[in-house]
């Protein structure tokens, strides 16, 4: 009965096992054992719990149901928290790693999709392909659309894999005994690899500007500049692929531990930006394709994507600031 009462009182307070453990200066495993009836807290901890829950010691120790207990249990049933088992945690980590690879490769395809188009524009005489310029451009556009469509397919399949665990990003939940230790161990083992991959990915993105600088300043001809852009796309695509894949794996640990960007304090505002992002990027893609087809200005329209990325960063900051102010008020 004591274990049931601790669960009910903790739920009423909106605390996780980690929160209660911190209040009592004990481990989460101790709280889990108390609630599961595997052990009993000592007298000092019972006194502390009576104080922080604002109930009597008699209520905690006596088996009889009281009016207070019934009220607590009603509150608990109204707002249950999801619980993640060790099996579910392992399943999520495996699926997150698999989906991360698919989503990262989808982004890789999106970034690299104008590559053949840049090569076609770099070689307007069509000597490389021994076919007409118009036909070369047509092939390049078809390849671009096929790569974007393939990327969308990867996004959908990757998202479907994680669909059952979407609540980890926005809801407060609990983990069963052993989950926190397992996730912390895997996170520590991956930490060095994560840091190394992030450095490599960021370096690729930074160095990606070199082909454009070299081709435009040192050579200056239009064809070489487009070739520089094509090489830049390759470096950016590789860098972003590495960053997304390793960051998705790292974030899966933080989601289960409810740390960093997935802490309880930040979950309320996380879902606020997602609908904006979906609509925004649909508009960007439609605008890019519409403008490019109507003006046939494929040589310059690619600039829409980097500009849109910068603007989205500004929108994200503004949106999160507005939402934070609403939550504070």
Automatic annotation (TrEMBL):
Domain HTH cro/C1-type as annotated: residue spans: 6-60
Regions crossing the membrane: 103-122, 134-156, 197-218, 224-244, 272-291, 303-322
GO MF annotation: an example: DNA binding
InterPro entries cross-referenced by the UniProt entry: Cro/C1-type_HTH, Lambda_DNA-bd_dom_sf
Keyword list, A-Z: DNA-binding, Membrane, Transmembrane, Transmembrane helix
Signal peptide limits: none
PANTHER family for the chain: HTH-TYPE TRANSCRIPTIONAL REGULATOR XRE, TRACRIPTIONAL REGULATORY PROTEIN-RELATED-RELATED
Name recorded for this polypeptide: Transcriptional regulator
Organism per entry: Enterococcus alcedinis
């Amino acid at each position: 009965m004591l274990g049931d009462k601790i669960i009910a009182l903790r739920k009423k307070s909106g605390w996780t096992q980690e929160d209660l453990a911190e209040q009592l200066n004990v481990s989460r495993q101790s709280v889990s054992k108390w609630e599961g009836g595997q052990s009993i807290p000592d007298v000092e901890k019972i006194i502390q719990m009576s104080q922080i829950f604002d109930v009597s010691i008699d209520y905690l120790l006596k088996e009889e149901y009281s009016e207070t207990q019934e009220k607590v249990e009603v509150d608990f049933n109204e707002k249950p928290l999801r619980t993640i088992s060790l099996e579910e945690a392992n399943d999520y980590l495996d699926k997150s790693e698999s989906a991360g690879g698919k989503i990262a490769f989808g982004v890789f395809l999106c970034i690299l999709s104008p590559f053949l188009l840049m090569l076609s524009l770099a070689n307007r005489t069509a000597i490389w392909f021994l076919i007409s310029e118009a036909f070369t451009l047509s092939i390049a556009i078809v390849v671009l659309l096929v790569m974007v469509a393939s990327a969308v397919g990867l996004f959908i399949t990757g998202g479907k894999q994680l669909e059952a665990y979407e609540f980890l990003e926005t809801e407060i939940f609990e983990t069963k005994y052993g989950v926190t230790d397992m996730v912390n161990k895997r996170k520590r083992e991956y930490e060095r690899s994560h840091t190394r991959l992030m450095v490599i990915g960021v370096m690729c993105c930074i160095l990606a500007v070199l082909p454009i600088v070299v081709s435009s300043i040192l050579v200056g001809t239009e064809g070489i500049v487009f070739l520089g852009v094509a090489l830049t796309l390759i470096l950016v695509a590789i860098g972003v692929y590495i960053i997304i894949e390793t960051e998705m794996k790292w974030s899966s640990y933080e989601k289960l531990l409810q740390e960093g960007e997935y802490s309880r304090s930040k979950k309320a505002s996380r879902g606020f930006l997602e609908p904006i992002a979906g609509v925004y990027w649909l508009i960007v893609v439609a605008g890019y394709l519409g403008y490019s087809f109507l003006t046939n200005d494929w040589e310059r329209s690619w600039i829409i994507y980097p500009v849109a990325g910068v603007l989205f960063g500004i929108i994200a900051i503004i949106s999160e600031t507005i939402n934070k102010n609403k939550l504070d008020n």
